[in-house]
Amino acid sequence: MSLILAVNAGSSSLKISLFQRQANDQLPRLILTSSTSSISSPPAKFSFKVVDVPGSELTSSGHKESAEADIRDHESAFGHFIDKLARYAEDLKQATQAAGEDRLNLDLDQIRNVCHRVVHGGEYAEPVVITEETYHHIERLSDLAPLHNGAALRVIHAAISILPNSRSIAFFDTAFHKHLPAHVVAYAIDQNVARKRGLRKYGFHGLSYAFITRSVAQYLGEDPSKLNIIALHIGSGASACAIRGGRSIDTSMGLTPLSGLPGATRAGDIDPSLIFHYTSKAQMDVENGGRILSHKEGVATEVHISDAERILNTEMGWKALAGTTDFGEIVRKADDDKCMLAFDLLLDRILHFVGAYFLALRGHVHALVFAGGVGEHSVELRSRVGEAVRCLGFAAVDDGMNEGVDGRKGVVVDIGDGGQGGKRVLVCRTDEQGEMARECLMVKGL
User: Fold this and answer.
1) Which among 388, 355, 371, 349 has a CA at the least distance from the CA of 261?
2) How far apart are CA 401 and CA 418, in angstroms?
3) Is residue 173 flagged as an active site residue?
4) What percentage of the chain reaches a pLDDT higher than 90?
5) Closest listed residue to residue 256, CA positions, set 202, 189, 186
6) What CA–CA distance (Å, rounded) separates 187 from 359?
7) What is the Cα–Cα distance from 358 to 367, expressed in whole angstroms?
8) Which pairing describes strands 14-20 and 29-37: parallel, antiparallel, or unpaired?
9) CA distances from residue 337 to 25, 297, 342, 386 in whole angstroms, order as listed
10) Fewer CB atoms < 10 Å away: N or C end of the chain?
11) 60 exposed, middle or buried (CB, 10 Å; 0-12, 13-18, 19+)?
12) Which of 102, 107, 143, 173 is catalytic?
């Protein structure tokens, strides 16, 4: 069976999973994973881990964690992975031949499809094969998702160059939200201008929400088309989503990933005029007590859109509040006023969306679901959110079950006290690469 490579490019990271197609279009089998972090602040940290390869015990090259000075950007990170995969495939071939055992063919020519997570797809509602036309369409959308679309395009370019016989396919985070109602999609602006310029809510983290929806439905024994959940994907980028009948009916991110919940470096929802006051170099208006920026002609200054987006995307969030992008550090330093503010602010914004989505679903909610790096690992955040939503009829979070999530198996873990009844509180180990590999089987002609 051929291989599927699923690639997830973050702003300074690259996650890759290799899958093998199965007979009768069963779920692809995960073969190995790789992760590269700190790409923008070298040396990058590289890991390579074999998950399910017969004969892997015959070679010592199946697991590696190292700092790599030669990884300078996303292209070189992808190239480094391919070099490592090729060396491992050759080592495995020689080791299994010497032992007289059959081997899994991991040669690069077995990679038929390379799936790329692309954050912003604009009007694309389904996966697309990368052509010159689709590449440039994604390129034009980079300004709307500057932390991710650019990185994805660089990896796509590298994949086409290094694996010329493979087909690159883009899977869009915006696609899951294609059924959003018109009144949710629209902003209160001139709709002629909005339609002409594509100014509307798109929503993001769609691959994660698709995986969560399918996994939670299976866990609860529900038909996905009847599942109602409030899902929280909380990581360096954070969002919330109301899902009714298996479809997104509202989500916190909008035209770009900037709106909604604050993240590691993103501001989340702010008053639109704040950025002009925040960046202004004009003197304070002394006539208003020295605290209000002047709008007088010749005194006020302009801020360029690129400056505003850079600041709001890279200099805000937990980084601005607490001086760190590591949420674990914020929790550990809970006695620090800055860290306490960052934690409480995120908690407050999460509760705003949970409350709003509970009403949007008219209270018919099967579960509140935590996912993402912070959602899956922060015992403290889950506990505080769980405590607050008890009034909505959710089960109380069981301290022991909540604290023991990392030690429990399964894609979905229940952290609620089932003995007390109530709506479920769950943790889902989301897998965007796995979702792409699964959806790849559904792409016509592949």
Assistant:
1) 349
2) 11
3) yes
4) 73
5) 202
6) 20
7) 10
8) antiparallel
9) 53, 39, 9, 23
10) N
11) exposed
12) 173
